[in-house]
Structures are given as C-alpha cells and as structure tokens.
Design a protein that fits this description.
It contains twelve helices and twelve strands. By secondary structure, the chain is of the alpha/beta class. Strands 6-7-8-3-9-10-12-11 form an eight-stranded mixed sheet, sandwiched between helices. The longest helix has 18 residues. The chain starts with a strand and ends with a helix. Bound molecules: iron/sulfur cluster and magnesium ion. Iron/sulfur cluster binds next to loops. Keywords: ATP-binding, Cell membrane, DNA-binding, Membrane, Nucleotide-binding, Transport. This is ABC transporter ATP-binding protein. InterPro entries: AAA+_ATPase (IPR003593), ABC_Ni/Peptide_Import (IPR050388), ABC_transporter-like_ATP-bd (IPR003439), ABC_transporter-like_CS (IPR017871), Oligopep_ABC_C (IPR013563), P-loop_NTPase (IPR027417).
Length: 328
C-alpha cells in the first residue's frame, strides 16, 4: 500500500577533510496520514540528517545522498521536477527546529514573519495574511494573539517563541509536520506544554508527524510508533507500547533504563556506557558492540540484519529473539 511519506533504503555520506563519513546507512521508515512516528537516537545517530534529506536542507559540509528514495504520496522527491519538489517541500511537508530564537528574525514582528509565507505562497493581501497570522497564533495558544502579533521575537519567552515557530510551520496547512527536538532548548514544564500542543494540533488538523528526539521519556504519550537509530541505521522499529513493554534491541533497553522514573526516586539511573561511534571509522560488525553488554564474537565480525519479528516490529540484533523472550 502507498504511504503518505516513505524513506526507502536511504544512504547519505558526508565528505570531510578526514575522509568519508557514512552517516546514513540504509534507513527506511514510513508515515501514514494522521500518524506520529518518533525517531529516537543520540546526537550523531542520523535522525536529523534523514529529516534534512526529506526537506532538502542537508548541512555543510555537503551531504550526498548516494542511494535510496524519499517518496511523498508515492512520488520520489529526489527525482521529481524542481518545481514539484519545491511545492511539496514548501506546502505539504513542514519542519519545526529546536532553536526558535535563532530561527526567527529579530528585526521583524512575529506577525510579519508568520504572514510572509502566506503572502509569498498563497498570494494573500497584507491584511488577510495578518488576520490569518492572528488565527494561527490563537491556534498555538499564544494569549492575546491579536495584540501580540505586532511584538518582536525578543518580547516572547522561549516557550512562546517555539509556539510562534509552530504557527509558522502550520501556515501552509501541511500534511506532514517534522519536529526536530522541538523542546530541547526549553525547561521541563514548558517542554510538556509544547509536546501536548503538538499532539493536539496533530489530532485537530489531522496531520502526520515525525518527532525527532533523543529523549525516550517525551514520546510515550505522543507517538504511535518509534524508530530507534544508531550509527545511521534503524536498530529497532516498533509500536510504542510494545517497545516500552519489551524492547527487542539492547540499545533500546539501555535507553529505557536511563529514563528517570517518578516511582524510583533515589535509585541510580543506568546509563549506556561509552560514546557514540565515529562514523569515519565505524566499529566492525554491529556498530553498537563496543557498548553492548550482550555482545558475543559474532557481533564483532557480522553486521546484524534487520530481523522481522512480526507485527511491524524489526530489530537489528543477532540476539533480538533471545532478548524478546527473556532468554538473555
Ligand atoms: Fe549487542 Fe550483538 Fe545485538 Fe549488536 S548484535 S546489539 S552487539 S547483542
Ligand atoms: Mg539533531
């Protein structure tokens, strides 16, 4: 069946002075209308790069897509005409970034920044675009939107600025919203409010959402499915409840054990030892093996294939079944 958005066997390299860094190594995921997929991983796992490839904004030094497809409603963004691609990325898919302060222009009012897209892409008049900007600010629950539309970014708190960014991303009524660490720069209470807002908007506007995060703690209530990334691969993909209940990959298990729990105050959090791999010189076999407490000889020599565990669940671990069955 055709998905709304599908990343299919994507490979991306970055050519640096020190050599070729293989940052995405065969990533596939999909998104259906109205659904939320969380893409989880540490910094450098490739979760943002995949999204940047979808949006056509790969960072410098130039990332190069060497293989794969990015399908929107069955049409490949990488091979469609420039015009169609620009339309799709501008109107169907939109993205919210982590750092609202540096994404907003300090010298223009938030109203003029929200309405700019509407004027450019929808040809709205200044007055109509401004009215729509107020509606959008209302929709993201910025109090007194009508008055605040004339304020400048520095007059808003961090959380309110992120709401302005979300309002901007909704201007074209996108079908897919990609949120890249949307709450990382904010304090904990505000984080929860922004996550609630995103969940509510997704529901009310019937968008699909890709939520990129390093924090497994924030996705439980929001996501339908989770794709866990490590070293440019998806190492586990599962329904959110199945994954929380019984992880099928040692990395996911480690992430779950490092979430602070309210009912376990005072107990020490487990953390995953070691650092993410250097993708200029990735470890042999399973890229996670230097940090994995279950590693065996085969893990050092053989890259684990993505095992299909049924029910839409996959894991790239030689011992996924043993882990799932509680045998290790
Ligand atoms: Fe650990 Fe081996 Fe599984 Fe990799 S394949 S996650 S090293 S047990
Ligand atoms: Mg990132």
């Amino acid at each position: 069946s055709e998905h709304l958005l599908e990343v299919d066997n994507l490979f991306i390299e970055f050519h640096t002075r020190d050599g070729v860094s293989k940052v995405i190594n065969g990533v596939s995921y999909h998104l259906n209308p109205g659904e939320t997929l969380a893409v989880l991983g540490e910094s450098g796992s490739g979760k943002s790069v995949t999204a940047q490839a979808i949006m056509g904004i790969l960072d410098m030094p130039p990332g190069k897509i060497t293989k794969g497809r990015i399908l929107y409603r069955g049409r490949d963004l990488l091979t469609m005409s420039k015009e169609e691609r620009r339309k799709t990325r501008g109107e169907e898919i939109s993205m919210v970034f982590q750092d609202a302060l540096s994404s907003l222009n300090p010298v223009f009012t938030v109203g003029s920044q929200i309405s700019e897209t509407l004027r450019k892409r929808k040809g709205m008049s200044k007055a109509d675009a401004m009215n729509r900007a107020v509606e959008l600010m209302d929709q993201v629950k910025i109090p007194a939107a009508k008055a605040r539309v004339k304020d400048y970014p520095h007059q808003f708190s961090g959380g309110m600025r992120q709401r302005v960014m979300i309002a901007m991303s909704l201007a074209m009524d996108p079908k897919v919203l990609i949120a890249d660490e949307p709450t990382t720069a904010l304090d904990v209470t505000v984080q929860a409010q922004i996550m609630d807002l995103l969940a509510e908007l997704r529901r009310d506007l019937n968008m699909a959402m890709i939520l990129i995060t390093h924090d497994l703690g924030v996705v439980a209530d929001v996501a339908d499915r989770i794709a866990v990334m490590y070293a440019g691969r998806i190492v586990e993909h599962a329904d959110v409840h199945a994954l929380y209940k019984n992880p099928a990959h040692p990395y996911t298990k480690g992430l779950l054990e490092s979430i602070p729990r309210l009912d376990a105050k005072g107990t020490e959090l487990a953390t995953i030892k070691g650092l993410p791999p250097n993708l200029l010189r990735p470890p042999s076999g399973c890229a996670f093996h230097p940090r994995c407490k279950y590693a065996q000889d085969i893990c050092v020599t053989n890259t684990p294939p993505l095992l299909d565990l049924g029910g839409g669940r996959t894991s790239a671990c030689h011992f996924a079944k043993e882990l799932l069955d509680g045998r290790i």
